[in-house]
Structure formats: structure tokens, C-alpha cells
Amino acid sequence: MKKIMLLVPALIVFISCKNEKKEVVQETEISQEVKVLAPINNEVLESAVIYEANIRQYSKEGSFEAFTKDIPQLKQLGVKIIWLMPVFPISETNRKATGGDFAYKIEDKAERAKMLGSYYAVSDYTKINPEFGTIEDFRNLIKTAHDNDIYVILDWVPNHTGWDHEWIKNHPDYYTQNDKGEIIDPINPDTGESWGWGDVADLNYDNSEMRKEMIADMSYWITEENVDGFRCDVASNVPTDFWMQAIPELRAKKDIFMLAEASQPELLKANLFDMAYGWEFHHILNEVAQGKMNVSDIKTYIDKIKTEYESDDILMNFVTNHDENSWNGTVKERLGEASNLMTALTYIMPGMPLIYSGQEYGLDYRLKFFEKDSIPKTKGETWNVLEELGKLKNTNKALNGGKVSAGLNIINVENKDVLVLERHKEQDKLVFIGNFSKAEQEVNVPITGQFTDFNTGTISELKQANQLTLKPWEYKILIGK
């Protein structure tokens, strides 16, 4: 806590001097305590839930102000980090429209005006998108989050800018150019062809001056606007040596949290990014729910991450995000009746679970990406599930998933459709048992001890070779006593 000394008029004395009155103010000091959030640290990361905020679609207003009002509720879900999708102005030139074409091709002015473009076509890295509000509204969002012990990271777009960015005009050498000297949109390195992101221009990381300006723009938000780090879009498309240059400079200014939209282990080495995407795990969850993979694939993945990643690497686990919801389908579309089971597993696995805007309200439709939409705001089963899982994540060390993650063991059972995992740290122990099939399953679980059932709150004594019956896609979380 930081004490701020306020000068308060304590006594006003009027002194008569000839015909003139003089006001003499005696001032005294009182202290008022103002909360200052400690720098983000490993202890926070161990038990954190991260929330992806889509400001445009979060509310009918689509504003910082509307989102800020709900920040205290996010704390109820165990959220300790808010990731704001890009908050910067969006380019008008080559702005994308629903359907993937350019907005300028829409003849009807009213319809064309509805097309707000992609958040990832940034026209200025140091300004706020007026669609969301003012810089004062943004600052109030940051303050409110910090007052609720929640850190805020910005979605940063380092691979490309929109076509209205002033660098296009004043520094064309900051961009990748073709043989004709024309600035081009980003190229897929695997195919040598365009990604199809025609609303953005590809940045040239061979240009050292561009790198300096990029770092300066990132630094602004840390030093001047008090943000706590960045989620970096398509981080693996940017040369790793840029991150080796940029991240130490940023960390020298403030303790920050860095999330890479990538899964390459090298991005987590040498104090670069703190967390990467668990893309492979996400795809496995989809495939298992659709009957294309099974429990053995989950076990193989667990063994794989233990060898490919270092012990202090953090992976973000998720069943949805902005890309998945808008382009690949809702949670229910992809996971069906397995939705709650797969969601629970993202909390049980080492790493940090993600909640995407609307997921907490059981969002059951694909949000529009290039124009205004909104999410439901009725709390139901999904909210209750996430709230309870969030509490467990925040309080039980057996679910620590940061740089000193809790231990993870696979408990082998004969039933190939049932996954049994044990997590443990210090005095805390937890057992997860899940039926990853659409049929009822029986399983003998070779675990002994007294446990509390997470779902029911009942306490039971487990003995060797306990036989359990699990409904289709049912899971149990047993908390050791």
C-alpha cells in the first residue's frame, strides 16, 4: 500500500488589516491508503486463469467502460490476467468485411459502414481505437483491474500493420517489398504464397530502425500506461533474434508477462516468453471429442511436453479463443457433450487455462469478426463450472501450473477410454478421473486415501482397486485430505 499525503484546510482565520480581509489557511496532513499492485511474479502465474477480452463484442456498447464494470465479476472466475485483444485504431484502407472481402467493394454505404475491420490491421501502435472509448477510459480499465488484483496485457501485432500506418508513407523500407518495390502482404513461409491477409502489410525485420521503433512503441504502454505485458500475435513469424533484442529491453523497464501466439519451445528459453499456446493439446481435445483420437493420444501428448519443454515453461490450455470461435466453431460445435469434460481438463493439466469472452456465459454462436456483435450475459451452468474450477485453480497447489508446476502422473488403468491423472505439490494432492467416450464406463482405480469429491462435496475413503462407474463424458476431481 502506498500512502498519499493530502493537504486539507484545517482552520481558516480571518485577520483584519485596515479595511482588508486576508484569508490565512493552515494546512494539516492526513494519510489515505491507495492500493498499488505488486509486479507480476511467478507466484501469481502458478494459480492464474487468463481471460481474453474482446471489447468490441463483450457488450452492446462495445466499450472499455462497459467491460470495466464487469472486471470484479471476472475475479470470481479466478482470473488474474486479462488479455485485451488489440485496442489500437484500425486502418480504413483495405479494411476487411464479413465474408472475407474488402469493405470498399460494398456499394451500399450503410452496409459498408457496418464493417469495422480486423483488430489486427493496426494503423497506430500508440493510440486507442475510438470505437472503444478514450485513453481515459482505457486508463480506468487498467486501474480497475489493478484494484482487483488483476494484471492486464495487450495483444501486440508485430508481424504486420494496416495500410494506413504512417510507416507506409514515411518509411516504406520498414516493409517487405517485391521485385517491383511494392509493399506486400504477409507470405506463408511454408508455401511461399500469401496468407490471404490482404488488409495488412508485412514488416521487414531486416530493418534495424523499424525494430527500434517497434520496441519504443511497446515500451510506451509499459512505462506510460502501466500495462503488464503483451500477447504477441503470430510470434513465430517474427525472427527470434528480434525477441532476444526486444524482451530484455522491455523487462528492464518493468516486470512483465509475455505470451507468444506460438508453440515453439525455443521462444520460451532464455527468459524470452513466459507462456506459449498449447495448440497441439487444443486440437487433441477436439479430435477426442469427435471420436478421431482417444485417451492414448492424450497420454502421448503428456509424455511429449515433458520432453520437449523445460520444467519452467508454461503452456496456455484452452477449448476456445477468438480464432476458434469465429472461424472453426463454438465449443458445443466442436466438443458437443464433451464440453465440460474438456474444459475441466484444461484446468487440470499443467499450464494456465484460458477463458474467452462469452465462454463463461455459454456462448453458443460464432461471433462476427469484422463487424459488431455481442455476447450473452446470462449466468448459467458454464459460469458455475468455471467459477468452481477457478477457485480450485487459485487455491489448490496441486493445480499449480507456472514455473514451479505441480507434479503430474498418469495412473494406468485397464479401461482404455478412461484417463486418470494425479497432481501433487507439497501437502496438496488431487486425482482426475475422466470418461472420454460416449458410452458408460466402469474402471478400477488403484488409489487409496480419503478424498473430497469436487463436484458433490462428499468425503469418501478410497481403497485399492475401487470400481467406479462413469457416465458418458463424465469426470471426477478428487481432492486429497
UniProtKB/TrEMBL annotation:
GO biological process, one term: carbohydrate metabolic process
Gene3D superfamilies: Glycosidases (3.20.20.80), Golgi alpha-mannosidase II (2.60.40.1180)
Record-linked InterPro entries: GH, GH13_cat_dom, Glyco_hydro_b
Pfam families linked: Alpha-amylase (PF00128)
Occurrences of domain Glycosyl hydrolase family 13 catalytic (ranges): 58-393
PANTHER family in alphabetical order: ALPHA-1,4-GLUCAN:MALTOSE-1-PHOSPHATE MALTOSYLTRANSFERASE (PTHR47786), GLYCOSYL HYDROLASE FAMILY 13 CATALYTIC DOMAIN-CONTAINING PROTEIN (PTHR47786:SF2)
Protein name (Swiss-Prot/TrEMBL): Alpha-amylase
Organism per entry: Aestuariibaculum suncheonense
